[in-house]
Amino acid sequence: MSTNEPNTNASPPGTRGADAMQTLAGRLSACMQCGTCTGSCANSESMDITPRHLWRLVQLGLKDCIFDSATFWICSSCYYCTLRCPRGLPLTDAMGELKRIAVAEGLFRDRTSPLFYRTFLDTVRRYGRVREMEVMARYFLALRSPAVSAGFTPLGIKLLMKGKIKPRIPGMSGRGKLGPIYDKVREMEARS
């Protein structure tokens, strides 16, 4: 929330996440478990459970199993599953909702995924676009693990040498307009 005033309409701790999970389960109730989402997902081999399995867990309300999984953190939000779903379900939006619930409720098994998620969104909010160098620098500093960042150094050098990432990105007009939009969304989320 963008203000320091207490939210008098706030639900008891944990109930907003439970309400959000019930709403999400309702949105996904038409899932017929065909597996098109899993077959369409470029990242499914990296996931500990498949998207199809994740949707079934959501339908069953198995919150512990859902948030013990890293599947929704691995989703790259390409919208291919949503595009190909024969029922037209908002699957990518559901992955995003699981991320929001996990961050709001502190439901994640390791701190690296939400840390990257926050770092990425903060950078977009600040500059209006992704600045890869800054995202990674802030992420590695926040991890406080030199071994992790050292492991990515050869890749970073290759990307720089090939011009795939730029040390400096030109400014963007109107970038200050994103902050108030983010604040308004947080305010609206706090009320719901």
What does it look like?
- This protein starts with 14 loop residues before the first helix and ends with a helix.
- The protein is built from eleven helices and no strands.
- Residues 1-14 have low confidence and may be disordered.
- Helix 1 packs antiparallel against helix 7.
- It folds into two domains: 12-108, Fumarate Reductase Iron-sulfur Protein, Chain B, domain 2; 110-192, no CATH class.
- The chain is mainly α.
- Helix content is 60%, strand content 0%.
Secondary-structure content class? mainly alpha
**What is the terminal separation in angstroms?**
12 Å
Low-pLDDT ranges: 1-14
Q: Could you tell me the strand content as a percent range? A: under 5%
CATH H-tier superfamily of the largest domain: Alpha-helical ferredoxin
Give the integer mean of the pLDDT values: 83
Q: Can you tell me the number of structural domains? A: 2
Concise structural overview:
With 192 residues, the chain is mainly alpha-helical. The protein has helices spanning 15-27, 36-40, 51-60, 63-68, 71-74, 80-84, 91-105, 112-127, 132-143, 146-161, 178-191. The chain folds into two domains: 12-108, Alpha-helical ferredoxin (Fumarate Reductase Iron-sulfur Protein, Chain B, domain 2, Orthogonal Bundle), CATH 1.10.1060; 110-192, no CATH class.
